[in-house]
């Protein structure tokens, strides 16, 4: 799974890398540690796991309780450092979800 | 808190149709593991620059929405008791806390006026955000209402004036509850509360005299002893609000009709501020707050932390730009801020409503000297320009026609419809508006509008030429009209140069010039001032008398015919001559250029004059008595403003010459930067002026040419002294002008001596330590006096004779004592020592007369200064004698060698 991609990383890459590449421009929802969520189109990720989202919208709960309503505002292009990322979801069909899950296991 | 997102996505964020949120965290982990260092997964449209400008989430300096362990919303804060109503069940504590809220709001308001966002300052108050909640607490409710209305009035004024572009955050009030039902009743609410309180205060006084306690329902709190103090503290805060609001509303009345009333309210405001400051003692003693050391930076008078504020509660309302760190001004600073604001407003109210344009411009410049804040400037602008009219009363064509002193018989209608007058009116409005903005913005804008003024001057000149050419065959009425365009031209040009001079002078206030650039800056200032003076004199010297002007026109027509012939002859002969004479002789190209430019210009008398003037200037034989010259020519005595301007001309010229000489002789103040050359700096500083062609035909090369000399031949400062002396009388009633004169005198006095010292010692003397300081005047520097000590000692080394040394010590000490402005007793002590030393050494000092006279000017100056002080206080006799003895010596010293 590792090491073999050194010859031409951009063209092929390892299976996870190429699958990740396929997710580019998809709607991605990233949760951060203070409880907010950011929804935007997946723009870029680096080795350290820092993600850049485009046209991002911030969602935040109005109250401390888990079921509180959310309010939102537009932020534009944002960088979410890997250290503060607590969850990451991609908007996809059920079939696709199955394949994604199977790969990750 | 951690991992709340986890695997469950909140239901309120919908996925696409027939889509689900699939967790990709494991995939990301795997992919990152496989990536190489520095490798990215990105699309084809990836742009590193755009990526660099991404907001970094969870970075406190960039992420304004970051959770800072505060409340998530106003509702949550209220539920958690962050802003209770009443503020405490104990009524005394309730009043204390209420006053704290008022004080903190005042500090917030001052901070907001300083340019921070409303959401993070005034509206960090939860009571203000949910004003309806406070209705059960009349005191707090009335204060919050009037606070909100005041903010609204201020925002309206600033956005109407459109000065807010400079202070970017000021008017951003997105989604803040600035207005609400019942705001119009804020004053009546406040009045009723105030009435109750003042009744209570009276009752307190009565009770105090009767020494009787009675539990009144209307009392503010529970301790009768404290009642009076709290009543006073609350009352002055409420009254301040009331008068401030009234003042702001009155000021907006059209045509300045509310100014009288507004002035009264501002005065009351100031006195209430005084009472507020006085209430500190009382509040502090009863609050049991922190120690005195800490209290200085607190935002309330009592020193306690106020209830009901959360600076972060609104952060999500602000734009997604990085948050600004805000330091709320302390309560003391806030009081000072409002005092300054009110004084600035008061200065506006004292502005007479029938000033001429000239005086208004002068007032604006004077007003800006104290660097007033945005709110005061916005109100000044609203007062001056209302509905496109000056004070809302005088249309600008009337203003211009007044400034021009039009000849009789000019049709008002024709003047008003003249396209140039319309354009100039618009430009003047713009100019006034720009002069009301802050210094930095003002300078930028002035540089830009110079081009517009330049363009209209060119158009006017073209129009005038066209009309003048047709003048041979037209009637007298049209001649009049021609003269109008000429007048407009002179006026427009004068204003252009005035703007240019303001542009350059603002550079000093904004500290844009380095000492190495002073030479070129003063040179340019000199050029601008000369041109401004020229235009001003032309305007003043224009004959007002109609009959005379027609005679002049007729004469001019004849002169023009003669001149055209003359020009032809000269052109021919120059063409012939230029083959013989070396082309380098500058007179000829200059003259040709001049002739070509002015060939069709009408004002021939003037043309001859300026030509000779320019030629003379080029040759270095400057016409010195320009003011006198024109005065005698036109019969109009040079007005005092012209003479003051003449002083500026001389000072700038003198400074240029001094700097240039130092520059050439000693290689100091030379620009030797690896980044840009002197030429590039010249362009950077004066590009806007050059682009607007103000003044025409000025280039870096001309600057270089005119500053090649090593010696300062003429003492310009002496000239200025002469003029200043005669000016004193004409400005006797005007304190600001007198101050200006005094400052100029100081500058002149110091620089004249510095110049003569530099001149006599020689600029190349390495002991000279020349620096410039703006301690006496904002635009013209002086050479501070520490240099003289060095000169003296250097001199001593070279001419090391004892007697000489003795005498010198005497004067060094004297000079230093005077110039470094020591206390009087120190000077006296210096004197005693000096006299002893001198007595020991100066047995035979006459021998050294010849050398001593070099420093006559310093000595005389210092002695005169010292004597003045001594005589004032009638001090030591011996010292006084010594001084007069010394003066005689010096005078003899300086006179003897010349025989």
TrEMBL record, chain A:
SUPFAM superfamilies, alphabetized: Sm-like ribonucleoproteins
Pfam family, one: LSM
Domain of life, source organism: Eukaryota
Gene3D superfamilies (alphabetical): 2.30.30.100
GO CC annotations, alphabetized: NatC complex
Positions of the Sm domain: 20-80
Protein name: Sm domain-containing protein
Species of the source: Dendrobium chrysotoxum
From TrEMBL, chain B:
Keywords for this protein: Cytoplasm, Membrane, Transmembrane, Transmembrane helix
Main location: cytoplasm
Ranges of residues in domain NAA35-like N-terminal: 38-178
GO CC entries: NatC complex
Family to which this protein belongs: Belongs to the MAK10 family.
InterPro entries to which the protein is assigned, alphabetical: NAA35-like_N, Naa35_N, TPR_NAA35
Residues in coiled coil: none
Protein name as annotated: N-alpha-acetyltransferase 35, NatC auxiliary subunit
